[in-house]
Amino acid sequence: MTSTTRVEAFSDGVLAIAITLLVLDLRVPLRDGLHTSLAHALARQWPSYAAYVTSFLIIGIIWVNHHAVFGYLGAADRMLLFLNLVLLMFVAAIPFTTSLFAEYLTAGRDAHTAAVVYSGVMLAMAVAFSCLYAWAASHPRLLREGVDPAAARASVVRFSAGTVVYLATIGVALISAPLCLAVHFVIALYYSFQQVRLR
Fold first, then answer.
1. pLDDT tens, position by position, for the chain (199 residues)?
2. Looking at the domain assignment, is residue 197 inside a domain?
3. Which structural domain range is residue 9 located in?
4. Is position 97 within any domain?
5. Residue 162 maps to which CATH number?
6. How many CB atoms lie within 10 A of CB 134?
7. pTM greater than the 0.85 cutoff
8. Sequence-ordered alpha helix ranges (H) in 72-176
């Protein structure tokens, strides 16, 4: 058993780097003489902006909810540390999948492949976060004083509800890549609301 302080500090660092890397995919359009205006060149890059906003929101919400979950924890055991590492592994992959999605969002059949990869990483992240929360909720010794263990266990299903929708986004990805990105945005909005209150 160990304090959660170092876990939170390390996690904050990884999340901060991941959310910062997203902006590297936003590029200044190359000058094209008199053939294309800057406004038109910027407009053509809408997939990059859409992917950036969506992934920034997702990582931001992950940070908010990670902070909320650890606010209920008084200690961390070895399994929780490893589950947190798995979560961070998938979060660290989000900038790559965002770049891939932005590049191929309007690329026909390849757009579906990029959307599936993006959705797959998001699904893996959601499963990892759900496992982390479920482990913490099912081990009262990890909870802070004043946190209701029964309420924590009961809230696991609600906390993990988005995982089913993340799974569904893989099917959506095979139908429409832009729609898939929009669904991910909506999922992030769902998780922007506080999902659990345990005190």
1. 778 899 999 999 999 999 999 998 888 777 766 567 878 878 888 888 999 999 999 999 999 999 999 999 999 999 999 999 999 999 999 999 999 999 998 888 899 999 999 999 999 999 999 999 999 999 999 998 888 888 888 888 888 888 899 999 999 999 999 999 999 999 998 888 766 665 5
2. no
3. 5-191
4. yes
5. 1.20.1410
6. 18
7. yes
8. 78-104, 109-137, 149-154, 156-159, 161-173
